Structure to design on (1194 residues):
């Protein structure tokens, strides 16, 4: 095994990337990995750099019309009347549809079916679509939209979380626990109050994480075609074609078998193309109305209105520790500004409380989360989905605790890391944990011991750690089927085609399939053809979200490829008269390891097998393992594997202006096993970049006193760093393989974002001694905190209060070490808390009603 | 953002021809040079000319002459910002202007955008530089299509902000602008070219063409420009400070301090300049001047960052610019 990977030597140069691996933990007994773990070109790279890639907006079909949406100019209003007559009379206008034409609601989560393609009677934020037009040109469609007259009756707008909590009427939606509260969560794992009372030291902090948007380069676009025989095809810039497929079926009342959704390559997604969007349904309806293809490409400001970005989140945390920093109990509260619709919000709210326990041991844990509706663009999943906010809070909170206890923040963390192969207080099963190596790498690389607390005034370093899921353990809608499927077709010519429903958003998901198949079958990466994201051609994969793709499609591809290998090996072994186990697949050949000349080309092996057994094709699929959590709410947080990250930021703070510059970040990420280290490094650096923007400047700001309009829906004025603002990054790739990952691989697309903002905040404190307990860390906030420090006041900028929330009775689940079995215990007479506590089905999905899925009381599932 | 509306595009070869075309087009006509300001504005329906007269093809506007041996430097208004900041005579003798030009937007836009265009840059505002649909949702503002100034709703005037980087420098240097109209040519001092009004922000008549900027001869003076913005890569200024000093031996013989991006025009602060005249720019003098410039600096909610911080930074930037000039004098 020692040579399992040709040693763990760094095969990439440059000095900025360092890899640490423990070859003894390799999952497979293969003699050597030829493709996995090596730098490979992405399979779509040449097409992208040469401009050949067709994005959704690049599609032009014969007789195609152009669609436009009319969007609300009111933040909250009743629609009294829509007059489309003038628009309909305009030459070149072919169809106009309004909410009356699409009355069936939809939403990404089964529990939040609160959206309409076009608002039938109420608008809930500026930008909410109310009508759609198809016309012969984009200009005509734009003109027509202008001619539609909408009469609104304005309603009181809810502009903030505080107002939402305090203002039950008018309700933005008529569901949710109360008034404008969309979701309330109260989970308690052990008696936290007692734990706090028994702690040596208790600290309480309030923090705020501002909302931000994804800012993908490509605006959303969709093209719909309605064929003469009544079949609908939708090409769309989407991360989740399967969910779009389901929503179209529901809203358009068409059989799923007559709808084909094709996910075009995405020019960036970051979570912003994970929902089902109004324009995707409207464009389909317009195609059906006109019998002609129709395209809608959103303008940049419309992309801002679609949003679904980071939830602005107010957080309160109270933690009790022993003298050496062991966490006895933690009580965490979050309050999320959801905007006008549900989106993924229920899951987002759960995520703000789910992963606090997977980095450091937390003996007892209590989480109370609330999401409210406001009259702003809906929030949803943005890279890190619901976890960068609590991670910001937690890592700053711990930095303060370390200081209060007189401990080095790195040492404090190292002492209390979660153990590998353990179960957390909230019943998350953790596999491999490379966090210790991560912390050691960045502290050594950054010179932490020489710098922390020792740099001259104005310079500082800060450390933060994090963990993220490698795919959500449960699907968005309740079902017992695999989360990912792959089909493999082997061609007589030696080519292999992989079919998978996964969606390329630039992260390299197409390439992962090719690398893994190439690895197993011994053919060149260039001999593998990848067909993805097409509901007619490819088996379902749930989509590019929750960092699930490498692990889940990778495992499905691995299974399909191993099955194909088995078929070929069987036939080749018979032909060569050697045992199957002695065959190797490499360099496009199948041969006897004890006499490599004794073999045949891969193509010949396929031909041999096809002659003997018929067409050679296999399938593979992946279903995540069950989670030990059995309480209501246990559905959010479980994952087959958790990635780990540690980051150190160095900052320079100009005390005269408050301007913070980040010259360098050292970041170590435990990815389990690199499938393609260059792509992994790209994801790490991309995450640092996005985290830097959130830390320093990005702000999804509104003007509450000006009709709750978005302050800056433009790429110039929504401030996000450019490449020139990017810091130097030293990346350490840590490989602590997880038994659940393909070849041990875990996620990398989102996790490395999480520690960036808190590391910067902690570094600012080290530099000038002020705490900025809210992002973005703008010069104005730093300067205000510095002035407070001068005056002898608390040297801090951040929130001061957390509103009173009518929390429901907690769901009480004793942690594993207190005799818990993952189920809720009846609370003082009131059994079952919120109800359904014993089912273990995801809280985001209501109990299934369709007869084809198993009963929620039997959460066990097939593999 | 909407696409460009339809318009007629004319390409005169001379200023005279351009003037005729403008006369013919009347109020429906507008000049364009690099287009980096006008075209995005047209997409937002800020300006809606039916006839766009391009000055880009007029060679005479693209020349840089003089500037040697005590003569003034004449810069054609059609010189691009890239040409301006890379021109050896501008870089060497008029480094404050070169610096300001180099700090405008991005290389790509500087390759198109012109000196004249940057001087005539439309005033900007958070409530104005928005798409048509956005402006409609707040019922527009008085600068275009509406009645109210959202920056100061009780104000009778528009508070859009002058966001040019080169304009404050031209005022500080005491430049003169050549304006050519159908009937006359006139020479206007830079300080009198701008008006304290967000809507009618130039004294230039719409039919006049700004053809040339005349910069004073090199003569024992020094100047600098500092720009504050969110991102070093590109952004409009949230504060600009241009300072010009005439040295007499070790003493400041004359001075001008001009603030950009805090008013609808490049705002000269003579009360600050007065304090340094006759001094050697000692620390306390600089501090006093910075405080004097801080007082009249009244940023509004019309661009990035908060008002209080931008005002506060006036002090830092005036201090910084004066220290830079003092250092250079001592070298």
């Amino acid at each position: 095994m020692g040579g399992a990977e040709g040693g763990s030597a760094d095969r990439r140069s440059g000095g900025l990337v360092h890899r640490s691996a423990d070859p003894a933990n390799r999952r497979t007994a293969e003699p050597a990995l030829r493709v996995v773990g090596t730098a490979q070109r992405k399979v779509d790279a040449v097409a992208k750099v040469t401009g050949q890639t067709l994005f959704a907006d690049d599609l032009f079909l014969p007789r195609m019309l152009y669609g436009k949406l009319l969007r609300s100019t009111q933040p909250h209003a009743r629609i009294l009347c829509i007059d489309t007559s003038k628009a309909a009379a305009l030459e070149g206008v072919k169809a106009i549809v309004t909410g009356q034409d699409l009355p069936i609601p939809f939403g990404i989560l089964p529990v939040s079916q609160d959206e309409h393609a076009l608002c039938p009677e109420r608008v809930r934020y500026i930008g909410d679509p109310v009508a759609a037009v198809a016309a012969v040109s984009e200009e005509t469609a734009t003109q027509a939209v202008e001619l539609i007259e909408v009469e609104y009756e304005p309603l009181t707008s809810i502009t903030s979380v505080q107002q939402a909590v305090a203002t039950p009427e008018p309700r933005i939606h008529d569901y949710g626990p109360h008034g404008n509260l969309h979701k309330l969560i109260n989970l308690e794992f052990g008696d936290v109050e007692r734990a706090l009372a028994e702690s040596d030291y208790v600290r309480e902090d309030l923090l705020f994480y501002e909302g931000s948007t994804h800012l993908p380069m490509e605006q959303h676009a969709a093209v719909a075609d309605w064929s003469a025989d009544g079949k609908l095809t939708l090409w769309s810039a989407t991360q989740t074609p399967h969910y779009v497929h389901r929503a179209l079926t529901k809203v358009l009342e068409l059989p799923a078998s007559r709808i084909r959704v094709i996910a075009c390559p995405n020019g960036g997604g970051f979570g912003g193309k994970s929902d089902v969007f109004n324009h995707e349904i409207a464009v389909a309806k317009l195609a059906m109305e006109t019998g002609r293809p129709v395209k809608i490409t959103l303008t940049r400001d419309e992309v801002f209105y679609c949003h679904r970005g980071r939830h602005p989140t107010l957080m309160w945390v109270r933690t009790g520790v022993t003298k050496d920093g062991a966490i006895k109990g933690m009580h965490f509260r979050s309050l999320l500004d959801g905007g006008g619709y549900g989106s993924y919000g229920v899951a987002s709210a759960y995520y703000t409380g789910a992963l606090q326990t997977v980095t450091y041991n937390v003996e007892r844990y209590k989480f109370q989360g609330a999401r409210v509706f406001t009259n702003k663009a809906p929030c949803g999943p943005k890279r890190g989905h619901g976890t960068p906010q609590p991670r910001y809070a937690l890592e700053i909170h711990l930095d303060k605790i370390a200081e209060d206890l007189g401990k080095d923040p790195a040492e404090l963390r190292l002492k209390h890391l979660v153990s590998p192969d353990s179960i957390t207080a909230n019943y998350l099963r953790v596999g491999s944990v490379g966090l210790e190596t991560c912390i050691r790498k960045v502290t050594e690389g950054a010179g932490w011991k020489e710098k922390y607390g020792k740099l001259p005034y104005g310079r500082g370093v800060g450390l933060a750690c994090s963990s993220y899921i490698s795919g959500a353990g449960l699907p968005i809608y309740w079902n017992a089927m695999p989360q990912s499927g792959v089909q493999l077709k082997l061609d007589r010519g030696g080519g292999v085609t992989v079919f998978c429903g996964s969606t390329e958003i630039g992260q390299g998901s197409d390439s992962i399939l090719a690398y893994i198949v190439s690895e197993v079958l011994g053919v060149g990466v260039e001999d593998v053809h990848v067909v993805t994201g097409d509901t007619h051609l490819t088996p379902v994969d749930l989509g590019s979200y929750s960092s699930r793709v490498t692990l889940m499609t990778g495992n499905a591809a691995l299974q399909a490829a191993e099955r194909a290998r088995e078929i070929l090996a069987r036939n080749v072994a018979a032909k060569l008269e050697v045992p199957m186990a002695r065959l190797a697949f490499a360099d496009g050949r199948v041969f006897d390891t004890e006499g490599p000349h004794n073999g045949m080309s891969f193509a010949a092996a396929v031909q041999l097998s096809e002659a003997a057994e018929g067409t050679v094709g296999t399938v593979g699929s992946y279903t995540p393992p069950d989670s030990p959590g059995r309480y209501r709410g246990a559905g959010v947080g479980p994952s087959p594997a958790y990635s780990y990250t540690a980051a150190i930021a160095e900052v320079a703070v100009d005390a005269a202006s408050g301007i913070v510059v980040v010259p360098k970040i050292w970041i170590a990420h435990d990815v389990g096993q690199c499938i393609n280290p260059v792509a992994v490094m790209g994801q790490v650096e991309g995450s640092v970049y996005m985290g830097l923007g959130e830390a320093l400047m990005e702000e999804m700001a509104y003007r509450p006193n000006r009709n709750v309009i978005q302050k800056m829906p433009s790429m110039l004025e929504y401030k996000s760093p450019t490449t020139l603002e990017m810091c130097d990054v030293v990346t350490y790739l840590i490989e602590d393989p997880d038994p659940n990952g393909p070849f041990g691989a875990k996620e990398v697309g989102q996790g490395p974002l999480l520690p960036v903002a808190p590391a910067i905040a902690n570094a600012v404190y080290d530099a000038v001694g002020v705490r900025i307990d809210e992002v973005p860390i703008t010069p104005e906030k730093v300067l205000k905190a510095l002035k407070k420090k001068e005056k002898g006041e608390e040297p801090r900028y951040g929130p001061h209060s957390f509103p009173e929330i009518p929390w429901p009775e907690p769901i009480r689940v004793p942690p594993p070490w207190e005799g818990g079995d993952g189920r809720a215990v009846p609370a003082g007479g009131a059994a079952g808390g919120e109800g359904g506590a014993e089912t273990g089905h995801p809280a985001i999905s209501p109990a299934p009603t369709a007869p084809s899925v198993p009963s929620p009381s039997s959460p066990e599932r097939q593999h | 953002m909407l696409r460009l509306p339809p318009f007629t595009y004319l390409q005169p070869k001379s200023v005279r021809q351009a003037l005729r075309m403008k006369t013919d087009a009347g109020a429906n006509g507008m000049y364009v040079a690099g287009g980096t300001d006008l075209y995005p504005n047209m997409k937002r329906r800020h300006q809606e000319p039916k006839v766009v007269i391009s000055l880009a093809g007029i060679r005479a506007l693209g020349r840089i002459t003089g500037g040697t041996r005590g003569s003034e430097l004449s810069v054609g208004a059609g010189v691009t910002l890239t040409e301006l900041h890379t021109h050896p005579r501008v870089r060497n003798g008029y480094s404050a202007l070169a610096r300001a030009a180099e700090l405008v937007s991005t290389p790509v836009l500087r390759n198109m955008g012109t000196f004249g265009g940057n001087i005539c840059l439309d005033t900007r505002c958070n409530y104005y530089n928005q798409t048509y649909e956005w402006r409609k949702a707040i019922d527009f503002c008085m600068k275009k299509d509406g009645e109210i100034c959202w920056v100061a709703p009780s104000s009778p005037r528009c508070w859009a902000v002058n966001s040019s980087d080169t304009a404050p420098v031209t005022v500080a240097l005491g430049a003169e602008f050549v304006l050519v109209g159908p009937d006359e040519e006139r020479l206007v001092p830079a300080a009198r070219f701008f008006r304290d009004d967000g809507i009618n922000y130039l004294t230039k008549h719409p039919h006049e063409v700004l053809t040339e900027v005349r910069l004073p001869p090199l003569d024992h003076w020094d100047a600098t420009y500092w720009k504050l913005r969110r991102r070093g890569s590109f952004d409009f200024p949230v504060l600009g400070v241009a300072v010009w000093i005439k040295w007499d031996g070790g003493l400041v013989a004359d001075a001008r301090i001009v603030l950009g991006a805090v008013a609808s025009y490049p705002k000269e602060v003579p009360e600050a300049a007065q304090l340094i005249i006759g001094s050697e720019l000692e620390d306390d003098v600089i501090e006093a001047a910075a405080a004097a410039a801080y007082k009249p600096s009244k940023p509004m909610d019309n661009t990035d960052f908060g008002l209080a911080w931008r005002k506060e930074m006036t002090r830092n930037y005036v201090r910084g610019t004066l220290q830079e000039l003092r250092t250079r004098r001592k070298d």
Remarks:
- The CA atoms of residues 225 and 595 of chain A lie 56 Å apart.
- The domain at 484-622 of chain A is CATH 3.30.365.10 (Aldehyde Oxidoreductase; domain 4).
- The two ends of chain A are 29 Å apart (CA to CA).
- Chain A touches chain B at residues 71, 73-74, 126, 138-139, 142, 299-301, 656-658, 697, 706-707, 709-714, 716-717, 719, 721-725, 778-780, 783 (CB under 8 Å).
